[in-house]
């Protein structure tokens, strides 16, 4: 549908039924009598029909010669055309040029991924990229909506921090005045835990940083993470919350982005079917057994890499939780399993189709002594965590939380194999510009 217009923007000399659109020339095709101009306005593409017989030789020639990405204001009348995007097109009466464009580098021909990423600032205008960023926008909105509806309070956690949140191996650090090293946040979790003792139910949603030297399809050095933290919640309730959360926001997003998924050739039906079934909760030990039976040489205690995650999701035919990981390979804040001291009350949610881990979460250790012991094992100075340890002194309660990587979930919804297209300006070990 051609958008109805703010009358103040309609400067056409024609009648009130005239529309105007402001945008950019995405493409142009046709013949010597009629030209079909694809105009991008507000991120959507509308068809503008230019007829020589109506416009006259001179104006028609100008339209026909408009270079890709010229910016324009067009005036005309809306008419039905079932072949046009949205079932309507604009029959052109006149136009005014706003900005020239010369030799726009991204043409309809095939370009390699490197070329496109070097031109990311322009590539964002392409059809598939418009669709992906709209899915991102809707998913982000659905996430905030979910937590607001569930009574959670948004807590904005700091990006510059003095304490290491996850692991010392993957930190970006910078000099911080006279106070030594500051780190870019790997997680907002520790701060969120403190806020959970104030508000009971809290979440944060923002950029997080990992100086990971992984060149995989699933790693960025800067990515967005949704984290939630809930007081008086155990690990089973934490998994119930995660499952309800993921299913709700995915269904909402799919419903609101049907046109975009079509533009990405993504049929959401199989994903919606998966979301209709429970996510199996598989014990880490059981996962190791399944992998061994599948011929993998893996022993209890090892982490489960992405290839093996895929073997497991294929085995179950859906997303799965892997729970109760070995204590030695997980972060210091995870609660020791009262039924098996070698494991922690943690779980990762693994998405199928090669997407892999989308959520990491756990119940949090309540014992002051046990956290201090684990910090020391990790080589982290307990005095840097005195504020965090205070939680275990003043009204400690069972609590649990999780973090979900936004870009991996976008890749899952859109059916993309690489997460670098899921963020407007990806940061990877070999890319810092544009
Ligand atoms: O499993 P992670 O490291 O968990 C935490 O940071 C916890 N503090 C969260 C919490 O309990 N509040 O990261 C959580 C999720 C992963 O499951 C993954 O989806 C995503 O963040 N993630 C990445 N996404 C893109 N690039 C990377 N380098 C990522 N590292 C983690
Ligand atoms: Mg993890």
Could you characterize the architecture of this molecule?
The protein is an alpha+beta fold and 434 residues long. It has two domains: 7-99, OB fold (Dihydrolipoamide Acetyltransferase, E2P); 120-422, Bira Bifunctional Protein, Domain 2 (BirA Bifunctional Protein, domain 2, 2-Layer Sandwich). It is built from 14 helices and 18 strands. The chain has helices at 52-55, 57-64, 113-118, 120-123, 127-149, 189-199, 235-256, 258-263, 269-275, 284-293, 306-316, 368-377, 386-389, 406-414; strands at residues 19-30, 34-41, 44-51, 71-80, 88-99, 153-154, 160-161, 173-175, 181-184, 201-209, 222-231, 281-283, 320-323, 336-337, 340-344, 346-351, 356-363, 399-405. Strands 6-10-11-18-17-16-13-12 form an eight-stranded mixed sheet, sandwiched between helices. β16 and β17 (356-363) form a beta hairpin. The longest helix has 23 residues, at 127-149. The chain is elongated. Bound molecules: 4-amino-1,4-dioxobutan-2-aminium adenosine-5'-monophosphate and magnesium ion. Magnesium ion binds next to β17.
